[in-house]
Amino acid sequence: MRYNSVYLVKRIGIALVTLYVAVTLNFLLPRLMKGDPASALASEKALGSQEVANALKAQFGLDNPSLWYQYAKYIKQLLHGNLGVSYANFPSPVADVMLKALPWTLGTVLTATLLSYLIGWLIGIRGAWKPGSLFDNSTLFSSFFLSSVPFFWIAIIFIMIFSFYLGWFPLGQAVDPAYDSFAWFDKAKSVLYHAFLPVFTLIIATLAGHILVLRNNLMRVLSEDYMLLAKAKGLRASRRKYMYGARNALLPSFTGLMTSLGHVIGGAITTEIVFSYPGVGMVTFNAILNHDFPLIQGSFLCIAISVIVCNLIADLVYPLIDPRVALN
Amino acid sequence: MSDLLQVRHLSIEYASPRGIVKAVDDVTFSIGKGEIFGLAGESGCGKSTTAFGISRLLRHPAQISGGSVVLDGQELTTLSNDEFDKLRWSKISIVLQSAMNNLNPVLKISNQLIDAILAHDPSMGKEARQRAEQLMKLVDLPVDRLDSYPHELSGGMRQRVVIAMALALRPSLVIMDEPTTALDVVVQNGIIRKIVELQKEFGFSILFITHDLPLMLEMCGRIGIMYAGKLVEVASREQILQKPRHPYTQGLLNSFPSLSGPKQRLSGIPGHTPDLIRPPAGCRFCPRCSQAIQECQTLPPPLVEDAGGQIACHLYSEEGIAREQASAACERS
């Protein structure tokens, strides 16, 4: 192991403190808003039943005006995994709504993020290795074009071309309307068929940034003396390219990858809206439109936890891939 | 002493937006077996470019535009890249200037020593590690440092590793491009001694490049002085020390203080190096030369071999000598 226990304890400690702050902010934010969103957390009108509203108010301490009391109740419920009840999906608990949307988001956004980084890195490496080549010039030009085009615009254009005119893909949704009656094989086919275009769009829309960053990093690394020395040593081109070049150029991009992974759980709001895809992004968007406070809180909490966890993983993995980090 | 390396009329140029830069122009010299040959000159004179041209490490857009390089009877400029790769490190190795960036920061020292060995002899396997240990001992580094990463070593230690690496395959020529420039003088002294000691032990030749002329005078047998892409003088150390002939060599020597001699104001060389895209028509040093004669403005002086070595200066051609004598006579009368 390249890192010692002090490093480990420090990083985990920082993550826990950050998590606590995030949880507290998540508690405070609705209560700081104008009007009375706090009491709306257990709104009689939204829940439609006096008894349910009262029970919820007691559970979350809303029957007591003391903020400290409410805070203690909130933390207690959180530790029990209770995020409250979603108004818009009454009587489903927030946790259930989130868990239902999560697989769709993970399946599409996670796949797209990983593929986008992988493809972007490979293209960036190939371009930087032979700068000025036809491959480099064409990917560079496309990258500059794509990175300056708005995200949602690409999605709309793709739907227009591939779904509307060509009819290759569905216009939206995650599965076929008759999904429930399908056999498992047709179910899988339906899921993949519906997921293809959103994933493809996400990859295309984020690819350019990864290409440009890695190409830039690698160009810088290639001008280092150790690259010249590696060539003078007569090392194979593949070893120079990957173990000497890309290995060093990837270090800064790794942080970017982990940050992106942290945001995966938040979903890709614009893409999910354009494709009417029932992921977490869509759920969050609808929750905001519906003033579904418990669901907004739950969604924000999930995003906060996942960002913190991914940052922690990045901190723990980084010393393994960059030997210079452990000492700092 | 038979020649190991012969460089003949080597020219290197690269395209820039303003035109073609003749970074190295018609350079000819040779290095004997077991000789330490120095190449000196100020920044941008083409000394490193010459070394990179010999070892085929020029970066695009620089390229060899003419001349030949013969190592051990083998012409190098016509070899294919694959053929040249086989020759790399086993015949020519290189030590670069910057002690900080010479080693790959994410690989252990052992991996970087071993990959050079295995690239040329994959059958070495486990023995490569033993070889790496021997190399560490050779440069007085503890063997357990093999498992360190470059950032865990000091600048001097890193440069020792690079020197050990350069000797891994017992090459016949080691090119050292300012190997100690980034180090402080005390560490520099230790490294230079080590280099000379190893050179005596193994008998390889060294092409030593630096702008530090006093250092070069201490360790090199013969020295070539470059100016603006041209080799202006090649002579033995003694010759350069006692009777430097080219006005540029004289100027260079006058730019360094003497430790033991009388205190005197350093003169330096006025002016600055010429534009290599449009070099002066005659001698490139002419605009800065205090001894220039008429030919210098129009006629580039050829590099001529004579008893004192090689010199490219009109003052030492027959007409030049005659003219000098005439003007001296003129002054007397």
UniProtKB/TrEMBL annotation, chain A:
PROSITE patterns, per the entry: ABC_TM1
Domain of life: Bacteria
Principal place of residence: membrane
Membrane topology (UniProt): Multi-pass membrane protein
Coiled-coil segments: none
Keyword Lipid biosynthesis: no
Domain ABC transmembrane type-1: 102-318
Localization terms from the record: Cell membrane
Pfam family, any one: BPD_transp_1_N
Chain ranges passing through the membrane: 12-29, 101-123, 144-171, 191-214, 249-275, 295-318
PANTHER family documented for this protein: OLIGOPEPTIDE TRANSPORT SYSTEM PERMEASE PROTEIN (PTHR43376:SF1)
Family note: Belongs to the binding-protein-dependent transport system permease family.
Full protein name: Peptide ABC transporter permease
UniProtKB/TrEMBL annotation, chain B:
Cited NCBIfam families: oligo_HPY
InterPro entries xref list: AAA+_ATPase, ABC_transporter-like_ATP-bd, ABC_transporter-like_CS, Oligopep_ABC_C, P-loop_NTPase
Record has Transport as a keyword: yes
The protein's name in its UniProt record: ABC transporter ATP-binding protein
Listed GO MF terms: ATP binding
Annotated organism of origin: Paenibacillus glycanilyticus
Domain ABC transporter: 7-253
PANTHER family linked: MALTOSE ABC TRANSPORTER, ATP-BINDING PROTEIN, OLIGOPEPTIDE/DIPEPTIDE ABC TRANSPORTER, ATPASE SUBUNIT
Family (UniProt): Belongs to the ABC transporter superfamily.
SMART domains: AAA (SM00382)
One Pfam family named in its UniProt record: oligo_HPY
Keywords of the record: ATP-binding, Nucleotide-binding, Transport
Chain segments annotated as coiled-coil in the UniProt record: none
